[in-house]
Amino acid sequence: MAIRSIITDTDHFLRKKSRPVDKFDDRLHVLLDDMAETMYKEDGVGLAAVQVGVLRRVVVIDVGEGLLELVNPEIVEREGEQEVVEGCLSCPGKRAVRLRPKKVTVKAKDRNGKDITVSGEDILACAFCHECGHLDGELFYDNIIRMVDPDEEE
Question: Which of 2, 25, 113, 140 has the most CB atoms lying inside 10 A of its own CB?
Answer without folding.
Answer: 140
